[in-house]
Amino acid sequence: MAALNDITIDLLEFSIRGYFDRRGGRVANVPNRGFEEIRYETRIQSPEPAERIKTLVEEAERHCYVLATLRRAIKVSARIVLNGRLLTEFTHPPA
Length: 95
Description:
This protein is α+β, with helices and mostly antiparallel strands.
């Protein structure tokens, strides 16, 4: 999407964490329910204005099949960092 919109991105990094009850399936009467929440952070280095990057992130989220699938089942939280500064944060509750 960045290339289609002629947006320069010098660096793009992700970190993803999943949170679950570690007792699940190992302790009596505690079922394994899988992940309860997934949190991710996207770090971007770009000379573009923050508003262009924010619009790009919003568009990418609307078209992401993985995010759409995860949001149906669990809470997904995100932090977007642009040039070392927090650009935006949001949480998608399960649908």
